From TrEMBL, chain B:
It comes from the Bacteria. It is a multi-pass membrane protein. The chain crosses the membrane at residues 12-32, 38-60, 72-94. Keywords: Cell membrane, Membrane, Transmembrane, Transmembrane helix. Its main location: membrane. The keyword Nucleotide-binding does not apply. The keyword Iron does not apply. The lineage of its organism: Bacteria, Pseudomonadati, Thermodesulfobacteriota, Desulfuromonadia, Geobacterales. It is found in: Cell membrane. NCBIfam families: caa3_sub_IV. This is Cytochrome C oxidase subunit IV family protein.
């Protein structure tokens, strides 16, 4: 048992170290954003006002809720409630799909208006606007990839819970996958005000 | 590390309370940025986002109940990021 205890400590520490590299990755993208914001405040303002606050706010609520369900699934597995764990994990994955669906609607509306990387409209417009939308697609795209990865990991974890490879006594894998999911939520907590609110 | 790490399980009630707080803060950040406060709304939005992150890290990510080593490396990472941001802006603003 003491051996198991030690293993889960190391596994979690390793996961946190990985999450720090993720923080620095997204931190770099946010630095790019703020530097260009100070250079092109007017164009960023115009760009930001074209983003849909309703989509952004809905996705914030969806991700916060998915984070709650993920955190609850850890409580459920530790108290031995297998069915509840599976239900909560399905809920988390469901929220991930809702998030991606809303993102799809949001991106298609932008594409429809001719706003996508290297589009004729952006090339003809002022450079600040094209930089704004390039950063918007880069940041939300990178975040979206993380959402997809998180949903895949979460589904895989659910299978492991179903097979009882993850159980009340040994569940650090579930904990680490939920940590990854919370990081996805954390990044969105900053994307939302930076792109949808402050401009 | 002196304290022995006993497994701590967060109750559903506590997690739900954190979630409600996060939703309230989200509503607050939307409202505060609808008012014309100039540069202050940027700082207000970032401050609220930091509080929200703190809640997610402390409770959802269980950081409050982890051994001290985890918090030390968290602050090393945040300090490094702050260093990058500070260094970049020193260059951008005073070039």
């Amino acid at each position: 048992m003491s051996h198991l205890e030690k293993d889960s400590f190391g596994a979690k520490l390793g996961m946190w170290l990985f999450l720090f590299t993720e923080m620095l990755l997204f931190g770099g993208v946010f630095i790019l954003y703020s530097v260009y914001l100070t250079r092109y405040p007017k164009e960023f303002g115009l760009g930001g006002h074209q983003l849909d606050l309703v989509y952004g706010a809905t996705n914030t609520v969806v991700l916060l809720t998915s984070s709650l369900l993920a955190a609850m699934s850890v409580t459920a597995i530790k108290t031995g409630a297998k069915k509840l764990t599976l239900g909560l994990l399905s809920g988390t994955v469901g929220c991930a799909f809702i998030f991606l669906g809303i993102k799809y609607l949001e991106w298609s509306a932008k594409f429809h208006h001719g706003i996508y990387p290297n589009s004729p409209k952006l090339i003809a417009g002022p450079p600040g606007e094209s930089i704004f939308f390039s950063l918007y697609y880069l940041t939300t795209g990178l975040h979206g990839i993380h959402v997809i990865v998180g949903a895949v990991l979460m589904s895989w974890t659910a299978v492991m819970v179903q097979k009882e490879r993850i159980n009340a006594g040994d569940n650090v894998t579930l904990e680490n996958v939920t940590l990854y999911w919370h990081l996805v939520d954390l990044v969105w907590i900053f994307i939302f005000p930076l792109y949808y609110l402050i401009l | 590390m002196t304290e022995e790490h006993a497994e701590h399980i967060l109750s559903y009630g506590k997690l739900t309370t954190v979630w409600v707080a996060l939703l309230v803060l989200t509503a607050a950040t939307i409202m505060v940025t609808r008012v014309e406060l100039g540069v202050w709304k940027v700082w207000a939005a970032l401050a609220i986002a930091s509080v929200k992150s703190g809640l997610v890290i402390a409770f959802f990510m269980h950081m409050k109940y982890e051994p001290r080593l985890f918090r030390i490396i968290l602050f090393v990472a945040l300090f490094t990021l702050a260093g990058f941001i500070g260094g970049t802006f020193f260059d951008v603003l005073y070039r």
